[in-house]
Amino acid sequence: MAGKTLYLGPRLKKLRRELGLTQANMAADLEISASYIALMERNQRPVTAEMLIKLATTYRIDVADLADQHADETAARLQSALRDPLFADIAIERLDIEDIATSYPGMAEALLRLYTAFGEEQLALATRRESAEGIAREPVADPVVEARAFLSARRNCFPPLDDSAAAAAKELDSFDAMQRHIADSFGLDVRLADDGLMRGGLRWHDYHRRRIHIAERLDHSGRRFQLALQIAILEQGEAIEGLVAEGRFAGEGSRSLVRRALQSYWAAALLMPYRAFRKAAEELRYDVEALAARFSVSFEQAAHRLTTLQKPGEEGVPFFFLRVDRAGNVSKRLDGAGFPLAQHGGGCPLWNVHQVFATPGLVDAQLIEMPDGERYVSIARVVRAGGGSFGKQSVPRAIAIACSAEHLDRLAYADALNHGEPTPIGVACRLCHRPRCIARSAPPMGRELVPARFRDSGVPFDFSAD
């Protein structure tokens, strides 16, 4: 132990203050000068092994108490932040990062807070709406954003609804059983109806004739879901209103969207009971097509349900869900994974959610890497909305579910991805600082474009690295 040195300035200062001592007091206790205490606290002198023993015996503390239990975590967070292409031209050694985290924890935390604030401001700038005159408008509450925030804050998981639906599923395990239940409990007659009656709708509660009409053009999974949704509306009002009341919404529009989302949640939980679905997901290694077939649901319904498996103590792989059309418009986001694209983004053309339009009906698996180095597995496929009869408009949409690459070995897609290189993607071009990206549609904010007087770089926007 002799001869070994450590720099523990901030922790030594913290210990002294916790003991209520001045530098002079501590110097007297340790039989050294006050100036030496000051130098150690500023990391200008090491804390030797002898000094550690003296501190432990004088103040009756465990030497381990001087160790920063969070240093490794802080170093990992710093390393992740510094992988951002924004810092690509700055050479920072791993040992330097660990030294900052260990010797200057306050400075490390300050840098991390600044980087987090920078990221939040970048996202705010990327999504801010301005008036035609270029003056920022007063922020207006967006019902869709509020509803998504409500679901995301709860990781799109509502155990009380799962428990209620699982109990009901024991009796309501088929379309016929649900049909009989609605007739017996509410005196409502369930019928299939053509488009002439439905006028393009999927479900209609004809209150005066006491009928529930389901569009006959729906496939079996669609019919079951609509009937399950009707049961949720008829029976789960009180439970759902209790959950809606937990939200802090600016208007009725947000509450309406959340109410509708929770009704759909219960319906999906009836068709795919939590424990049975999670067990099957593990057995089938999260193969979305196989899960859809086992539970007689659509690919999208199974993918959607995978984002909800975050019940405490019974968690599955956490997934994020995105649905986009050919133009890149996002019509649904669900976050059970903390994915960077959960609140913003989705427009990177290198992501397979945009590429599967070229191969409709086929599932594509892709390993992707974000600018900070984090890797994710993305499973994408095209689904269709509408249609069902000749001449009826049908809209193709691509859906993707994504999870952290740390779960790759638990997935059926592992064999196809384990030996491949990840595809680099970004949240949005304005926020992505990756150099030399041929898919870029705009330069990143804060970077100066390089004039192409003598050389064509071959990329849409060539920008400076500093």
UniProtKB/TrEMBL annotation:
Residues 12-66 form the HTH cro/C1-type domain. Keywords: DNA-binding, Transcription, Transcription regulation. InterPro entries: Cro/C1-type_HTH (IPR001387), HTH_RamB (IPR026281), IrrE_HExxH (IPR010359), Lambda_DNA-bd_dom_sf (IPR010982), ScfR_C (IPR018653), TransReg_Diox_bact_type (IPR050807). It comes from the Bacteria. CDD domains: HTH_XRE. Belongs to the short-chain fatty acyl-CoA assimilation regulator (ScfR) family. This is Short-chain fatty acyl-CoA regulator family protein. It comes from Aurantiacibacter gilvus.
